[in-house]
Design a protein that fits this description.
With 699 residues, the protein is of the alpha/beta class. Helix content is 40%, strand content 18%. Strands 11-12-10-13-14-9-15 form a seven-stranded parallel beta sheet, sandwiched between helices. It has a six-stranded parallel beta sheet with strand order 16-21-20-17-19-18, with helices on both faces. Helix 5 packs antiparallel against helix 6, helix 6 (203-211) crosses helix 8 (228-253) and helix 20 runs antiparallel to helix 21. The chain binds adenosine-5'-diphosphate (ADP) and magnesium ion. Magnesium ion binds at residues 311-312, 406, 562.
């Protein structure tokens, strides 16, 4: 919140000082600035340049080279409106070394006045060959006495701008904010001594440097964010984020959760039912969870485990501990298909124990929904499984003890919090599961509010998946191969991808593809599943596939998560270049679950970009989820990889989790230091950097 009082006091912190109070920023301009997310003085100061120009020297007109950016100064010797194909205003400018044309494709009274014959002007622009020799098109122009001192002494920043807001105006505004900063010392919230030695630069100096670097500065390092001035800012921002997440964690842990003693019976019953034993990694994570849930302090645990590592079973074990203690469980998944898959796994495991499960998704309506709600409210149902429908207002639990969220990166923080609210006075324990492994330092930052467990072992007997990359021109060969493959009783997936946002188009593409494959492979049973099918239809198709009645299942990326059919051991993915690595890894994880050799064929569309080629290459080379995540980070950046755009977890102004990875370890240490040494400063630091943090905390 930016406060706009009529009087600015010297104690008003910069992020609370409205931009409208500095210089002459009226409502119209304020609106344009808001489009750039500039509302406060601080916002303006953190609006970093895109690049820099060197305007510190005036060039001789006679020595200008074509396509050179340059500042020139001279006398207007002629100015007239030209009536060519397009009306233009042409000014002739002369200095002691030569003349040049300045051309404007608009004419105004102000322009004519400015370029009056005989006037001395300074302009900046790019010299290009034109019809009158070298010309500058729409250069920036000023009277020599208007030129800001900084323009001659510092590199000139070029900012991200918006329609109707000129660079000149933006520079002026930032300049005013900077001079305000000079009169006014910024409270150093983060002690300088906490910063790494090379980054011990006062905040206002770092800011001034970024906006007005002296000539000769390594602007490349500045723009890449590797310059100490930027790193200094990024460091503080990262600390602020860390502090806010820890604060969230503290707030949650100050609440009371129902204590669930270690399971005496139900967990053992489940294990006895299984045809396999838990892997060491599953056992380890299960005992970490079991220990957490015995306390009245709410558990906040993230379980990371690669595709196929057996997270569902870990979730079931946690659920049983909670149910045995007399509380209810809510298990939420991001898609209908995944939720259904969980529902069926849990039915299999829990029904024999006489535990009732309520099924809730957006498509459960009317009587079925009313019954499910009743069962949850009365406590007859001990566990609810579904999509985000689980936390709608009218869903009431008798006594919720544990929420489990699968594939956490697809849910927003808000959704996580909304489910937490269902505890009615008591806070349920929280278990979050993700198959998108991220490197440890990154997890430390992104999930600072959570404890992390890793299932770092796959169940035994998994066969490596051989991945082949080929152009879509070889589709016919692939279809032939499928014919032979399925003739031996094995099954396959054919995944159609279409990123065009519309789900309808995606489904259409899958329908067309299924049609084509049905015609090409008359001996095979081709099934089709996509997001537009009714849940009933979807379930029938999946059941038929699982039973082996369908040989080839054509699907959209709806099967990306969770689907488990061990006899399906070949997967064809069309247009894999359109998907992220994590998503491809998820998809591919649907095969390689049985004992037979498995294949994944990536049928890409030519021409393939360099990045696209690099990504597919990674898929061919490795099956290790952590390695893939690392590569994905390198190629695409953390925002895309973790889906932070949706979660709102890491919207940084300056920091960049990937670029700043080397800082993260120290960021965590410094955050702890602040928490123990300067707890009274935490709010101010968080408040300075994160306007959103508070909203999350209250959501
Ligand atoms: P994910 O971690 O991707 O969610 P799932 O929970 O779907 O993985 O498990 C994948 C498959 O592995 C399922 O068929 C599951 O029954 C099986 N599975 C889980 N744990 C084990 C184990 N310890 N030994 C053998 N198979 C297991
Ligand atoms: Mg899963």
């Amino acid at each position: 919140m930016v406060v706009a009082t009529s009087k600015q006091t010297s104690s008003t912190p910069l992020h609370r000082l409205a931009i409208t109070q500095v210089g002459r920023v009226g409502p119209g301009l304020a609106e344009k600035l808001a489009k750039l997310n500039i509302e406060s003085v601080q916002d303006a100061l953190l609006h970093l340049p895109l690049r820099y120009q060197d305007r510190t020297r005036i060039q001789s007109i006679g020595q200008l080279q074509p396509f050179q950016d340059a500042v020139i100064q001279g006398e207007v010797i002629n100015a007239q409106v030209m009536m060519g194909r397009k009306r233009s205003f042409l000014v002739r400018l002369r200095d002691t070394s030569g003349t040049i044309g300045l051309r404007f494709y608009f004419v105004s009274q102000a322009l004519k006045q400015f370029f009056e014959k005989g006037a001395e002007v300074r302009v900046f622009g790019e010299a290009r060959p034109g019809s009158s020799g070298l010309e500058m098109y729409h250069p920036e122009y000023q009277r020599p006495d208007q030129v800001q001192a900084t323009e001659e002494s510092c590199l000139t920043p070029i900012y991200p701008a918006t329609d109707g807001l000129s660079q000149q105006r933006l520079r002026q505004i930032v300049g005013q904010c900077l001079s305000y900063l000079k009169q006014q010392s910024v409270t150093p919230l983060l002690r300088e001594s906490y910063l790494p030695p090379t980054l011990q630069i006062p905040l206002n100096q770092a800011l001034a440097f970024v906006h007005q670097p002296p000539p000769g500065t390594d602007t490349h390092a500045l723009l890449e964010g590797l310059h100490p001035a930027i790193q200094r800012l990024a460091f503080e921002e990262l600390v602020a984020h860390q502090l806010s997440l820890k604060k969230l964690r503290d707030q949650t842990q100050a609440q009371v959760a129902p204590a669930c003693p270690a399971s005496q019976k139900l967990q053992a019953d489940l294990i006895n039912q299984l045809s396999f034993t838990l892997t060491g990694a599953q056992q380890k994570v299960c005992s970490e969870i079991a220990a957490d849930m015995q306390h009245t302090q709410p558990m906040l645990r993230l379980v990371q485990g690669d595709v196929g590592s057996g997270k569902t079973l870990v979730a079931a074990m946690a659920a049983l501990q909670c149910i045995e203690a007399g509380y209810q469980v809510a298990l939420m998944a991001p898609t209908e298909i995944l939720a259904e898959q969980h529902y069926h796994s849990f039915l299999n495991w829990l029904n024999p124990m006489g535990i009732d499960i309520a099924w809730l998704s957006g498509k459960v309506k009317g009587k079925a929904r009313a019954q499910a709600l009743d069962a949850l409210a009365s406590g007859q149902a001990r566990i609810a499984i579904g999509t985000h429908a689980l936390f709608q207002d009218d869903v009431v639990y008798q006594e919720l003890g544990l929420t489990i969220i699968d594939e956490q990166h697809r849910f927003g923080v808000h959704q996580r919090l909304a489910l937490r609210e269902k505890g009615r006075g008591r806070f349920p324990h929280q278990l979050i599961m993700t198959a998108t492994p991220i490197p440890r330092t990154l997890a430390m930052s992104a999930y600072a509010d959570l404890d992390c467990s890793v299932i770092d072992e796959l169940p035994p007997g998994r066969k490596p998946i051989q991945t082949l990359v080929m152009p879509s021109g070889r589709r016919d060969d692939v279809i032939e191969r499928l014919r032979d493959h399925c003739a031996t009783g094995q099954q396959a997936y054919w995944v159609c991808t279409l990123i065009e946002e519309s789900e309808n188009l995606q489904c259409q593409a899958a329908e067309d593809c299924a049609q084509l494959l049905t015609e090409a492979l008359p001996d095979l049973n081709v099934g089709l599943v996509h997001g537009r099918l009714k849940p009933q239809e979807k379930a029938e198709v999946m059941a038929a596939f699982k039973a082996g009645l369908i040989h080839l299942l054509v699907a959209t990326t709806v099967i990306e998560v969770g689907v488990d059919v061990p006899n399906a051991n070949i997967m064809i993915i069309e247009n894999p270049e359109r998907l992220g690595l994590a998503q491809l890894h998820q998809l591919r994880g649907r095969v390689g679950r049985g004992t037979a050799a498995s294949y994944c064929l990536l049928l890409y569309q030519n021409p393939l970009s360099r990045q696209g080629r690099a990504r597919l290459e990674v898929m061919r080379e490795t099956q290790d989820g952590f390695m893939i995540a690392e590569k994905d980070l390198e190629i695409r950046g953390p925002g895309e990889v973790m889906g932070t755009r949706q979660t709102g977890l890491a919207q940084f102004r300056i920091a960049d989790l990937l670029r700043d990875q080397p800082l993260l370890e120290q960021v965590a240490q410094v955050s702890d230091q602040v928490r123990s040494q300067d707890p009274e400063r935490i709010d101010a630091i968080v408040d300075r950097w994160l306007r959103q943090a508070e909203r999350f905390a209250q959501a």
